[in-house]
Amino acid sequence: MIKVHAPTTAIPTDKRYKCEQCGRMFNFLAQLKIHLDCVHGSKDVRCNVCNKYFNLKSFEAHKRTAHTDQMLMCEHCPKLFKSSGALKIHARSHDDSLAQFTACKLCNKQMKHANLKKHMTSQHSEDGPVSCELCGKSFRSMFHMKRHQKNTCKATIDSRPHKCEVCGKGFHTKLTMVEHMTTHTRTNQYQCAFCFKSFGYISNLQKHRKKAHPLEWQEIQARPEEGIASVIMVRN
Fold first, then answer.
1. CA gap 219, 202 in Å, rounded
2. Which compartments is it annotated to reside in (predicted)?
């Protein structure tokens, strides 16, 4: 109430409340209590899916995000997110009025400041060629090698929770596994509502929609109250 609804009220600027376990300081006692519950609370709740232990508060957040097939897609690109909070943070990257642009000192490429670190890691890494210790394949940087291990390395198939019943390939999410199945069944599960062209992957549909139907998509965005769908789920 003080911070949001009474901006003229004097708020102490000094952080007066100290966590005795890690030394972190807080302005308000309520913030300290939340910190103690989330960070230093007893980890006595076990997740029955991944067998990791959490305190009660962090376990509730873990359940909402870690083991759900519900994915939220960005309206501007095909990226998927498990929570509305993560989606909102990502959406800011598409707002040029909030973004700060900078130039890479090595190649002079212009980009958003938030993307500079990733660009330097993927394009100008000085760690040299890196080999995957699981399969031996070489990559030009640690960034590319880690991405390979997570997504495509054949040696990690058994560790992925969702398996294709046809070829045995593993996937990190059920959605990517279901989409992969379309390569075997030759049936597409997503259909564009504007031209009825079908796609096996939602990301390909999103790219198609942005390129082929930008005006129709803008019209839908301008009338959210009408609930007009731009994607049709095909039931096979």
1. 21
2. Nucleus
